[in-house]
Design goal:
Length: 253
């Protein structure tokens, strides 16, 4: 894993790393994709809190540079690991500022060119907040991803401005149900009802559904019965360094 950048404003030098969490096809439990998740490690070897670092980067606008680094690093590392099996994809998170920056087209294109990754293996995760302003340029950007063969999914679905009616009109291919609902599904009827209705509406709209935060066999079984497409969570693995991806591939072939 490579040291490529320094994050100013933190003590000492901070190494940026990419970790990967597997996403499995629900019935076969074969590897479907890996979600690239950023990690920040100090020279002392401590990991900083990812969520807080991403929030700070978003607030300061640095997310555009950090995000560009991330896309390039994740695609290049993935290709160099031979992680791109015939049916294996790569999920990338895009923050709202990053998705709305004019540089984003160039940053993605450059990473594709450098790495040799084909666009049709990429799944871009965006959050509902991106759609709040109903901004034409944002929609045009997501349509561009789809025209180039990439996919767009809404991350943390159910936590934000989750109106089902707007889903139909947006250039999205799928949703990821937030782990807060999955976590409570087996003991809380309301959480289960939410998961069921999200799945029913998503299916009716032709969207793929990924459940996040799957931690138990019981949750897996419920989700399979509800015909959820993809599963991700600690039941399978936390996010790990790229070197461990071939292990997931071997387990699922
Ligand atoms: O993996 P972890 O739970 O530590 O991630 C914490 C938060 O940071 C999550 O909300 C995750 O989506 C976000 N995050 C991780 N990597 C990236 C990234 O590369 N870009 C963006 N925008 N968010 C990321
Ligand atoms: O916002 P986003 O969905 O990208 O956040 C991903 C975060 O969820 C990461 O920080 C990751 O570590 C965390 N995560 C992934 N799987 C699980 C899980 O099964 N349980 C819990 N509690 N957290 C998870
Ligand atoms: Na995500
Ligand atoms: Mn999520």
């Amino acid at each position: 894993l490579r040291l490529t950048s320094l994050l100013t404003g933190t003590a000492g030098k901070t190494e940026f790393l990419v970790h990967y969490q597997p996403i499995l096809e629900a019935n076969s439990e074969k590897l479907y994709s890996c979600e690239a998740l950023m990690r920040f490690r100090t020279t002392a070897g401590d990991y900083l809190h990812t969520g807080r670092m991403i929030e700070a980067a978003e607030a300061s606008g640095m997310i555009i540079d950090v995000g560009a680094w991330m896309i390039k690093a994740a695609l290049s590392e993935y290709m160099s690991l031979g992680a791109l099996g015939p049916d294996i994809n790569l999920n990338l998170n895009l923050s709202p500022k990053q998705a709305q920056s004019t540089r984003i087209y160039r940053d993605i294109q450059k990473a594709l060119d450098i790495s040799g990754m084909p666009m049709d293996r990429l799944v871009f995760e965006v959050t509902e907040g991106l759609f709040l302003n109903n901004d034409r340029e944002t929609i045009a950007f997501l349509e561009w991803i789809q025209q180039q063969g990439g996919r767009v999914v809404i991350d943390d679905f159910g936590t934000g401005y989750s109106s089902f009616s707007y889903l139909r009109k947006l250039p999205v291919d799928g949703i990821k149900i937030d782990r807060a609902f999955i976590m409570h599904m087996d003991e809380d009827e309301d959480a289960l009802a939410v998961v069921k209705s999200i799945l029913a509406v998503a299916k009716a709209l032709g969207l793929t559904v990924t459940a996040e935060g799957v931690e138990t066999i019981e949750q897996r079984n419920i989700l399979r019965d509800l015909e959820c497409d993809y599963l991700q969570g600690f039941l399978y693995s936390k996010a790990v360094p790229g070197g461990e991806i071939p292990k997931f591939m071997a387990q699922s072939s």
